[in-house]
Design a protein that fits this description.
Elements (H helix, E strand, L loop, with lengths): L2 H13 L3 H8 L3 H8 L7 H11 L3 H5 L16 H12 L3 H8 L3 H8 L7 H11 L3 H5 L3
Length: 142
Amino acid sequence: MSKLSENLKCLMNDAGIKSAALADAIGIDQSTVLSLLRGEGLPYTDTLVKLADYFSCSTDYLLGLTDDYSGTQFKQRPPFSQQLTIILAHFNVTKYRMEKDTGIAEKTVNRWHNGKTQPTSESLIKLANYFDCSVDFILGRV
């Protein structure tokens, strides 16, 4: 069982909410919730943030990157294209350097930078590890 699956089950149990009700509450398909509960992969960025917002926890907690469940409110996140520019400036790293150091394809980073796509949960984790920060910082939630 994945840490995300385990944490999501605990959060749902503590909140007394079933998969159908959670899916309705955050506007996703119940099959997505069930898939996450079975540990079948990681959620899309929007789903990850919706789950974290619903349970007032960090995305890092949901992903199992921290055991700290600090029930807190997070900022409304900016578009990732804007946040990527902020991150690169904050850490004084070029897109090229980040691509080379992380192994993330230039095409992928350019699509993020142009607002065409968002990073996957796997990419968010890779970026957080690279910059030695939280996924919530990468997303602009803190």
